[in-house]
Amino acid sequence: MEDYFNSIEKKLKGKINFEKLEIIDNSEKHKGHKFFSKERYHLHIKIKSTYLKSISRLNAQKMIMNILKDDLKHKIHALQISID
């Protein structure tokens, strides 16, 4: 899991300037849900970025989602994004 989170950080670093990144795994909170799978994560990304704050929230979130689009198809079931 730690390696996977490092790969997410690398992907984001390659495309976005940010000061701080925190990736929180909330998968355990969703264990009883209908489509829960141990192979797919429920993540909360907290990112502090002057750049992302300078563009609209929608465009910032779209940018992050686009960078992680393959992960969203195969490894991430749910993604919450907080931009500071």
CATH superfamily: BolA-like
Strand order of the largest sheet: 1-2-3
- Supply the helix-strand structural class: alpha+beta
Number of separate strands:
3
The ordered string of helix (H) and strand (E) elements is HEEHHHE
Strand content: 25-35%
Work out the helix count. Answer: 4
Keywords:
single chain; 84 residues; alpha+beta; GMP Synthetase, Chain A, domain 3; 3-stranded mixed β-sheet; 4 helices
Descriptive report:
10% of the residues are buried. The radius of gyration is 13 Å and the shape is globular. The protein has four helices and three strands; from the N terminus they run H-E-E-H-H-H-E. The protein has a three-stranded mixed β-sheet. By secondary structure, the protein is α+β, with helices and mostly antiparallel strands. It has one domain: GMP Synthetase, Chain A, domain 3.
Helices, strands, pairings?
Layout (H helix, E strand, L loop, with lengths): L1 H14 L4 E6 L15 E8 L1 H5 L2 H11 L1 H6 L1 E8 L1
Parallel strand pairs: 2-3
Antiparallel strand pairs: 1-2
